[in-house]
TrEMBL record:
Keywords: Transferase
SUPFAM superfamilies: GST C-terminal domain-like, Thioredoxin-like
Enzyme superclass (EC): transferase
Species of the source: Cylicocyclus nassatus (Nematode worm)
InterPro entries per the UniProt record, alphabetical: Glutathione-S-Trfase_C-like, Glutathione-S-Trfase_C_sf, Glutathione_S-Trfase, Glutathione_S-Trfase_N, GST_C, GST_superfamily, Thioredoxin-like_sf
Domain GST C-terminal: start-end pairs: 40-168
A single MF term (Gene Ontology): glutathione transferase activity
Gene Ontology terms: cellular component: cytoplasm
Domain GST N-terminal residue range list: 1-38
UniProt KW DNA damage keyword: no
PANTHER family reported for this sequence: GLUTATHIONE S-TRANSFERASE, HEMATOPOIETIC PROSTAGLANDIN D SYNTHASE
Name of this chain's protein: glutathione transferase
Length: 168
């Protein structure tokens, strides 16, 4: 299978016999198809910038996440939580809070007045992290409200309630 993939790895989305690789490229492609990328070119760029910042944050917290998930042992989990995870959280959620407060539409979304792919990405990460670290959103009421807003969308809420239980 791997030799037939563009970069020898998943994820890959196949559309009309053509393959598209890399998770964020797939997110952006699908977002454009379904109206989840922003209302204009600048909003699309802001959404993409948040997706890129999310990637930077994920790299920053990787030692904690991979240790917590059992992929590697980068040190004591509680120490990694204190020294890696929570400082990374503080920085990233601080950025998110600024975006939410500075969104002139006051919609509760990160960019503009409607749901985007990065709202979905980030709200699901917040829900996952809150499930494993109950205090994860403490001190970040705007980010918590954003997560709740996104997850209250009727179609998303139904999917969340009925989706298969998977480890990731």
């Amino acid at each position: 299978m791997k030799p037939n993939l563009p970069f020898g790895q998943v994820p890959v989305l196949e559309v009309d016999g053509k393959q598209l690789a890399q998770s964020k490229a797939i997110c952006r492609y699908l977002a454009r198809q379904w109206g989840l990328s922003g209302s204009n070119a600048f909003e699309e760029a802001l959404v993409d910038s948040l997706g890129d910042q999310y990637n930077d944050y994920r790299v920053e917290i990787k030692p904690y996440m991979h240790t917590a998930q059992g992929f590697m042992k980068a040190g004591d989990l509680e120490q990694l939580k204190k020294e890696v995870m929570m400082p990374g959280r503080d920085k990233f959620l601080g950025f998110l809070t600024k975006f939410l407060k500075n969104n002139k539409t006051k919609s509760g979304y990160l960019v503009g007045d409607h749901l985007t792919w990065v709202d979905l990405l980030i709200s699901e990460h917040m829900a996952d992290m809150s499930a494993s670290i109950p205090e994860f959103l403490d001190g970040f009421p705007e980010v918590k409200a954003h997560m709740e807003l996104v997850r209250s969308n009727p179609k998303l809420k139904k999917w969340i309630e009925t989706r298969p239980d998977t480890p990731f």
